[in-house]
Every structure is written in C-alpha cells, then in structure tokens.
C-alpha cells in the first residue's frame, strides 16, 4: 500500500507563500540547459542561459529582492531587468522563465499585459493601475527616470506587503503578460505542510488533500522532463520590446 502525504491546495495563489525554489532553478538547469556557478560558501544560485544573454540570480538579501532576472544582448543592444521578493510564489516566476526558454518564444503573440487581468475580472483604472478583486494585489505602471516600469505588490492589509515584483520598461511585454496571466490564474497551488507555516489563514482558502508520496516526489522531475522535451538546438531569440503605450490623460 502506497504511503499517503497531505498537501495543501491554496488560493489565491499570490498569497500561497514562496514554495520550492527548485521549481524554477532545477527546471532551468536540467530542463532548459542553463549553466550554474558553483560557490558552496555562498547562499546563492546564479544561472546563465546557453547563449549567455540571460541570467537568473537567487540570493537571500535583507530588504532586497531575492530573485533577479536580467538580459543583455550585445548584438542588438537589448537590455532588461526584472526582480521578485523572496516571498513571491515560485509558480509566478516559473511562468516567466518557462516562457523565456520556450523554443517558440519568438513566435508568441505579444498581447497587452492588462489583457489577462481583464479576462480574469480584475479592475484597471487610468494611469496604468490595477487591482485584484479581493484588493490584495495592486499594480501600477509608473514613471521612473523617464521610463515606464511595472510594479506589482501583494499585501495582507493596506500597509502589510507580502512581496513585490518589478519589471523595467524594456522587459518584453510577452513576459509581463505571462506574469499577469499566472498572477490572475484561479487554479490553486500546492504546498507541503511545512510551507504553510506562517501563512495568513484569514486571507486564503486552504484545503488539505491526501496524495501518494510517490506522486508528489515525481512532480518536479516530470516538470523538468516536459521542459527538456521541448528544447531545440537553437536558443530562442528575444523579440524586441514594444514601445511604451501613450499615457492617458486624467
């Protein structure tokens, strides 16, 4: 008889806690062929794409984003950066890295980043602001040094932020839209018992489910296998970022 293990199904996903970083890091290294540096004395992970243009850095730093994703293309001059706090659910970050490493990335339709939110019934207002139906997530497109960047904040209460995500103005819109789609996805995410410790039960719906231990253990390897199966010999090129949309008048 197989051993059963309890897992929590949590929604909304943006308040489910960070989850397992390997969902992103192991998937990039094994499934997408990103190389990693080796510094056993430092609590950090640095992963670099096969074409040496993209880098993901995971490093616990007090009062700073833990995840930093950057792209530098000396041939085209394309440069962009995104960052995520340590409590950002890994499923949201993985949505971006999965899209970036997809061999069909360059052929993806470039949609307005707001479109997935509109479809999910989120509220948007003038000047690039939006919020989730429960008011726990707020986003804005703000002007910083002449550039229009994106900032998303998930909070338990008005002055109690849980995590923030930031995209500079040059981040490809397809990646910003992918993040927004994952953010608004109503599908619950799975967490182990240990990963639910410290979560605010007032703000989430949590349902325990028993599953075979073998099935839980296979989740990450199966994810890696899916990503590896789509790899091609030619790394995907990064599409040019669209120019920022014109500002709306108040």
Major sheet: arrangement of strands: 2-3-4-5-6-11-10-9-8-7
Shape assignment: globular
Binned strand content: 25-35%
- What is the average of the pLDDT values? 88
Distance between the termini: 65 Å
Oligomer designation: single chain
Structural write-up:
With 250 residues, this protein is α+β, with helices and mostly antiparallel strands. It is 22% helix and 30% strand. Strand 10 (147-157) and strand 11 form a beta hairpin. The termini are far apart. 32% of the residues are buried. Mean pLDDT is 88; it is low at 233-250.
SSE blueprint:
Layout: E1 4-11, H1 22-32, E2 35-36, E3 45-48, E4 54-58, E5 67-73, E6 78-84, H2 90-100, H3 115-119, E7 123-124, E8 130-131, E9 137-144, E10 147-157, E11 160-167, H4 173-184, E12 189-191, E13 205-212, H5 213-229
Helix pairs in contact: 1-5, 2-4
Which characteristics define this entry?
10-stranded antiparallel sheet, 3-stranded antiparallel sheet, alpha+beta, 250 residues, single chain
Task: Summarize it.
With 250 residues, the chain is α+β, with helices and mostly antiparallel strands. It contains five helices and 13 strands. Mean pLDDT is 88; it is low at 233-250.
